[in-house]
Amino acid sequence: MAEIRLVNTDTLSCEPVVRRMSDGSLLMVAQCGDTYEPAPRNRVYFFHSYDDGATWSEPVSIYPENGCAVYCTEVACFDDRVEAYLTLHNGQFFNWRSVVMVSTDCGHTWTDRGPFPGLEAYTFMRGKIVLRNGDILIPYQRYPISAEENERLVAKYGGTYRRSGKLMYVGVTDVGIDYVDNGVALSRDGGATYEICPCPHFLIRGETGLQWVWSEPTIVELSDGRVAMLIRVTKDVLWYSESSDGGRTWSGFVPTDIPNPSCKPKLIGLPDGRIALVHDPDRQKRNPLAVWISDDDMRTWRRREVISDFPLNFDYPDGFYENGKLYISIELQRRDVLFIKHSV
């Protein structure tokens, strides 16, 4: 039986990420504000819980106000240091640059450390894992949009509204790229330095029939040391790549038989070798929210549990494992930030 708690309600809530802090508290970071995404008034806020998720503090902005829209795609813990990977943009995903915010007091105050080296622009960082050998892998999705292409897009589409009344954004314009770059940032020194290790390009445009892909990679280490990656593509199934050398090189992506409505999945490795997949196992709609468990390195998913089939959209799950439970963050219908504890 899952325990579900409401963390916050806003006119917009996107992609909450929950993590355990070194002082025992829980930290939740989420995009809120405005009425759609991307939009000029999108901001990122953090919340704390000191009773294991039963109650949560009021929202506090993580980034100093400078007029930019703000998004957060990962919160990574390094002992007493916490890093939040932010995207700053003009409200349309133009002038998109990446910023690493660092906290050394369990997420109460934050310092801008600048861009992630080698992934400074048009990049979303995703869920960090630590391999059994101690190496750190942080998956990413990057769009190879040059400075010149960015300026062209701003000149042509900046401030332009679609018929829906929403600002036109990078994903539905004539961006001059033909692939999405997925991969991992690999560190062998605890996160002090990183090597950027790309997957084979995931092609878009042309014969692919794909105009854009929000790939949102998630990774997990398998029992034999291989690393598996799943990405979101379109409304149908998740796609798979793997690395046999600790994340340095990757196979080409192939479709799986895991249904997905074009929504971010989350892989979580469990201490006993099982692998949890938190996702929406439907080819069209973001419902129900479910946990699938594999005990054979993702070849099969013998345990499939619905957390909730409440008839609204469950978007962008994230979380971690602790003491027999998954601690899950999720947005409901792009309005509510929810916190869930689910026994596995």
Distinctive features:
344 residues, Neuraminidase, six-stranded antiparallel beta sheet, four-stranded antiparallel beta sheet, 3% helix
Q: What would you say this structure looks like, in words?
A:
- This protein is mainly beta.
- Helices cover 3% and strands 46% of the residues.
- It has one domain (3-343): 6 Propeller (Neuraminidase), CATH 2.120.10.10.
- The strands form 6 sheets. Strands 10, 11, 12, 13, 14 and 15 form a 6-stranded antiparallel beta sheet that branches.
- Strand 7 (81-89) and strand 8 form a beta hairpin.
- The longest helix has 11 residues, at 147-157.
- The model has no long low-confidence stretch (mean pLDDT 97).
Helix content: under 10%
Total count of strands: 26
Number of helical stretches of at least 4 residues? 1
Q: Beta-strand level of the residues, as a percent range?
A: over 45%
In short:
This protein has one helix and 26 strands.
Secondary structure: elements and pairs:
Elements: E1 3-9, E2 13-20, E3 26-32, E4 43-49, E5 60-61, E6 69-78, E7 81-89, E8 97-103, E9 111-112, E10 123-125, E11 129-130, E12 136-142, H1 147-157, E13 179-187, E14 195-198, E15 202-203, E16 218-221, E17 227-231, E18 235-243, E19 254-261, E20 266-269, E21 275-279, E22 289-294, E23 303-308, E24 314-322, E25 325-332, E26 336-343
Antiparallel strand pairs: 1-26, 2-3, 3-4, 4-5, 6-7, 7-8, 8-9, 10-12, 11-12, 12-13, 13-14, 13-15, 16-17, 17-18, 18-19, 20-21, 21-22, 22-23, 24-25, 25-26
